[in-house]
Amino acid sequence: KPLLTTTSLLFCMGLCLQLPLLIRYAPHPLVWLNLLAHLLIALLAVLFSLNKQIPMARTCLLFGYYSYLVFATLLWSQDVYIQHFLLVGCLCCAYFFHSFEQRERMLWALLYAVSFCTLDLYLSHALEGWLLAVRRGNSITLTLTCVAVSIATYRHNAKQWWQLKTQYQFYFIRPQVTRTGNISISAACFLPT
Q1: How many angstroms separate the CA atoms of 39 and 183, rounded?
Q2: What is the pLDDT of residues 25-51, one digit of tens each?
Q3: Helix (H, G, I), strand (E, B), or coil: what is residue 78?
């Protein structure tokens, strides 16, 4: 299965695993509504992916994951560390975009990263002194590290794909000289000569 389909299914499963916590501890009904609405969005991402509508599937997954985490963080109104999962979204952005979609990839990764920092700074407002400084310093450091890892992973993957393409072209696409002396390139199976 494509990565997008598998990831969307995993998001659905993750939301379903939240059900026991919601049954026992949900502070109000909006937490339930948030989960159910985002479960539908995740299922839409699966359906779009299975129907080869990749841009729609990707948008549903990235937006659904993002909005679920932001709303869940705000609805629980306590620091239960939901916001840290935004950094997982930041890291995943390295895998869902083509090489010609660098701008979109960076915008999504930065949206996740900045939202994490903003929510974490908001939730740590009650801390004081050195504890506040360490918490905020760790949040910023963790965010910058995740953005750097996302960029490095994306560049590594792009380089690997480029090397694979180059090797394919070397082994499977051979120039041939025609009767008139022109050079044409045709795909041919690699056969030892």
Answers
A1: 56
A2: 988 899 999 999 999 999 999 999 999
A3: coil
